[in-house]
Design brief:
With 234 residues, the protein is of the alpha/beta class. It has a single domain, classed as NAD(P)-binding Rossmann-like Domain (Rossmann fold, 3-Layer(aba) Sandwich). Helix content is 42%, strand content 15%. It has an eight-stranded mixed β-sheet, with helices on both faces. Strand 2, helix 2 and strand 3 form a beta-alpha-beta unit. Helix 3 packs parallel to helix 4. The N and C termini lie far apart (42 Å). NADP nicotinamide-adenine-dinucleotide phosphate binds next to helix 1.
């Protein structure tokens, strides 16, 4: 087994968009990062753009228990640790439906990726974090998941982010005093395939608070929701 001196991070859905910018930003801080994607060709193409020996690649579909398990085996064998988990992969900003007419199969698919994906990943990697008494889990959420903002629009997406925020609080409190900090971050409105070309923030700007939450010190906050490095209301 190789000896990895620095911290090891893993970012879900990191072949493009905010996830890719998070990989770049963490690697620039000297962190060893595992870039993951559900499509191997896309992931390897993203890795090639980085030309950074601190970045490794492994396939991952967060909806598949088998895929997650293979990744756990890879990380355990290659690094023997995982310090930082960024649950970034997310789908389906469903602007075409509302809560009264939403296609529930579509909602189910959204929940499977946006909520059960982070839940599955957190469960799978917790024992590696607990082994080192160190962990930072960042769940990439959205202002659409703020309870006060719920309006019946983008119903699958918004309710998935409310549930992701609930998972954040639940897991954080369960892990209290174990030096595993679990927080949710809203990246703001970001120019990606999901956010569209008209969004005000670059992927790097969207990644900044996620990276900040990934690098919190041992006495840092947990069970909180942040945007622009400031706490916001659930
Ligand atoms: N952009 C915004 O304005 C904005 C605002 C608030 C919150 N967010 C959140 O930020 C996160 C990243 O969004 P983004 O804007 O960067 O979106 P994006 O450009 O659409 O990228 C989404 C990423 O998630 C991956 N993904 C989707 N389903 C997956 C699965 N089952 N397993 C593994 N990876 C999967 C995609 O892979 P493929 O390439 O294979 O599709 C892609 O890499 C999401 O959680 C999103 O909800 C974004």
């Amino acid at each position: 087994m190789k000896t990895i001196a620095n911290k090891v991070a893993l970012v879900t859905g990191s072949n493009r968009g905010i996830g890719f910018a998070v990989v770049k930003g963490l690697a620039e801080q000297g962190i060893t990062v595992v870039l993951t994607s559900r499509n191997e060709k896309d992931g390897r193409a993203a890795l090639d753009q980085l030309d950074d020996s601190n970045v490794y690649y492994h396939p991952l579909d967060v909806t598949s228990t088998e895929s997650v398990q293979k990744l756990v085996e890879y990380v355990t064998k290659t690094f023997g640790r995982l310090d930082i988990l960024i649950n970034n992969a997310g789908i389906n900003y469903d602007t075409w439906q509302n809560v009264s007419d939403a296609d529930l199969e579509n909602v189910q698919e959204t929940l499977n990726t946006n909520v059960l994906g982070p839940w599955r990943m957190s469960q799978a990697f917790l024992s590696l974090m607990q082994r080192n008494h160190f962990g930072r889990i960042v769940n990439v959420s959205s202002s659409s998941g703020e309870l006060a903002a719920l309006s019946g629009e983008t119903p699958g997406y918004s309710i998935s982010k409310v549930a992701l925020n609930a998972l954040t609080i639940s897991l954080a409190r369960h892990l209290q005093n174990k030096n595993i900090l679990v927080n949710a971050v809203c990246p703001g409105w970001v120019r990606t395939d999901m956010g569209g070309a008209g969004a005000p923030k670059s992927p790097e700007e969207g990644a900044a608070t996620i990276i900040w939450a990934a690098l919190l010190p041992d006495n840092g906050p947990t069970a909180k929701f942040f945007r622009d490095k400031s706490e916001i209301a659930w």
